[in-house]
Amino acid sequence: MAGKGKTTFGKSSASWLPWLGLALIILIADQFAKVLIVGYYRLGDSTYVTSFFNIVRAHNTGAAFSFLHDAGGWQRWFFTGIGVAAALFIIYMLRKHAGQKLFSFAMACVLGGAIGNVIDRLMHGYVVDFLDFHWRGMHFAAFNLADAAITLGAICLILDELLRVKRGK
After folding, report:
1. Dihedral sign (CA 123, 34, 117, 44)
2. Closest alpha carbon to 37 in 139, 125, 142
3. β-strands 138-139, 46-50: how paired?
4. pLDDT per position as a tens digit, 104-158
5. 30 catalytic, yes or no?
């Protein structure tokens, strides 16, 4: 039985709340940026920023790199379901492992990004992308702050695992 001030996982509920706060900051920044893009840009508009970076408005009905973007519509609910399931699992993992700082940072980044993209899919039927990096005429797939947070989280998860394995030797 959990004691006073404890969660069912034996950790103080306050120990995982800062990670939820980080996820919320990521979510707010992502959604604020997307509101600005939708408010000031039409689909396909682009603003030159540097020789390798533009601000654009793009819509992605698929996943990363527009995977399944032309699948006929079912992917909206498929990726929304994956995002919701991932968010629930991440919250469980944050509660269980809140004391593991790098792991929890990674999970919070993925959580904030996943929820940001789920909100887009529910509101619009697509994800709003606006960061366009390019070099010598080749463009990387446009992405958003949620995607960047998910990528940062994935990199940190890999680093966390490598460090864990190294400590175990």
Report:
1. positive
2. 142
3. unpaired
4. 999 999 999 999 999 998 999 889 999 999 998 887 889 999 999 999 999 999 9
5. no
Q: What is the CA radius of gyration of the chain?
A: 18
- Which helix (H) or strand (E) element contains residue 60? strand 53-60
- Which DSSP letter does residue 45 get? -
- Cα–Cα distance measured from residue 58 to residue 40, given in angstroms and rounded to the nearest whole number: 13
pLDDT band at 72 (very low <50, low <70, confident <90, very high): low
Q: Is residue 80 within 8 Å of 121, Cβ to Cβ? A: yes
According to DSSP, residue 6 is labeled B
34 membership: H or E segment, kind and range:
helix 13-40
Amino acid, res. 162: L
SS (H, E, C) 102-166: HHHHHHHHHHHHHHHHHHHHHHHCCEEEEEEEEECCEECCCECHHHHHHHHHHHHHHHHHHHHHH
Q: Output the CA–CA distances (angstroms, integers) from residue 157 to 5, 56, 86, in the order listed.
A: 29, 30, 15
Residue extents of the structural domains in the chain: 26-168
Q: Given the residues 30, 120, 132, 147, select the one marked as catalytic.
A: 147
Q: Is 160 a catalytic residue?
A: no
**Catalytic position from the list 120, 129, 132, 160:** 129
